[in-house]
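General statements about sequence and structure are easier to judge against a single worked case. No coordinates are needed to read the tokens, only the vocabulary itself. The sequence in question and its structure tokens are set out directly beneath this paragraph.
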Amino acid sequence: MTPTITAFAQSPDRGKALARDMRIRWALEEVGQPYTVRRISFSEMKEPGHLGRNPFGQIPTYEEGDLVLFESGAIVLHIAECHRGLLPDDAQARARAITWMFAALNTVEPPIFNRTIALVMERDKPWHEERLPILEDRVRVRLGELSGHLGDADWLDGAFSAGDLLMVTTLRWLSASKLLGEYPNLAAYVARAEARPAFKRAFEDQLAVFHAHAGAA
């Protein structure tokens, strides 16, 4: 059965593929699973129909028959467990890959997301310029630790896995800043992931939505 995911009707990041539906698109492309996309507006996200899929009124969601999931990490884990290609066969390596999935979302993402929100929502606050360096130093702590672990390896733990997929989509939120460039091995890590054919297909699919709406505007 072909799953359906939800995504923004219009790209809030102007086609940069930073929204969390990109994680789901990429995972499905990696495992060779066709899918359809239900594009919804910001107002539709708070309507009963979508709240039945995600009670918090967010995207992405995932529907496959009677199964309805929300939270991008949970959806990627489900895809990885149902299809070969995103989790190792070896039990211990599989457990480590899942650990990196949680690390991406629970350890690395929070300081990066806090910085992102500050840039978007707090620029006009009188304390913004003082607070931003504090937020960026917190990001640097995590980037330094991650850089130290990665070293000169291609991926976090052996072959590319769902852990790398979630980590890279988190690190991409720093693409417009100079922070990622302070850690050349992490910048190369992200570039290596973006060069994967599955990433490129997912990126082009979501970019087409942006171009379609931009052309109609």
